[in-house]
Design goal:
Chain lengths: 135, 135
């Protein structure tokens, strides 16, 4: 049951990055939770703790995103933490690497994002990237 | 019950920053979860998903911390997310501001850190800082 939900969470996480790359606002919006409080920390921004502000931030990002923007994500670990499904991943943006925490809660039996935080990190060296991964 | 746990989580969060400022490794160690998987993302580091690596990172940080180091934290919001008590806060380090997510799970009726991620952010402008705060 948990393993199946981990796989479904990783699918949702793939959809998150697919929406990010495709500048698909509708898909991005549909992935966020509606029944739980959400938080979003884009690198260098002020933290966003209001759902409307979070969705607006994605609108702004999609408008300002360069044509050749592409983020490749590498899952480090997906695990169940309390009742949250937490995906820790690297975000590869050309030469720049970020580490992101994407937390999901199930609403109506669907994994929905409740928290996204991305921050600059050193590129992975010896970390074994695996997908899907269970703690 | 939830409100009482939020207050206790914020006390643990105060203890986290107090250990950070005092370079108190024993106190820092005692705050981390022992029954749940932990993750720690220091700004610019590689993500740490191994408890031993996390504790070692604090050892290194305390050794290399300048004498006058002081981080002041400002709680933005503490809320219950699924079964996780999540503290979102600004970290003020002189001119530098970070935003941190500190997630806690209760173990043996004590709030224990399971996740810390700090990332550079714009200084707070119009965000109302309140403490304690409930979503």
């Amino acid at each position: 049951m948990t393993e199946a939900k981990i796989v479904r969470t990783e699918f949702a996480n793939d959809a998150f990055y697919s929406a990010f790359n495709a500048r698909d606002f509708d898909q991005m919006s549909s992935l966020w939770a509606t029944r739980n409080a959400c938080s979003c920390m884009h690198p260098g921004w002020q933290p966003l703790v209001d759902k409307e502000a979070i969705l607006n931030s994605w609108k702004q990002i999609f408008i300002n995103q360069p044509e050749d923007f592409f983020v490749k994500h590498h899952v480090i670990k997906t695990h169940l933490l309390g009742s949250i499904f937490s995906v820790l991943c690297f975000e590869e943006l050309g030469e720049v690497w970020m580490v992101a925490t994407n937390n999901y809660l199930f609403e109506n039996d669907e994994p929905k994002i409740v928290h996204h935080q991305a921050s600059p990190c050193r590129p992975p060296e010896d970390i074994i990237l695996s997908k899907p991964s269970i703690q």
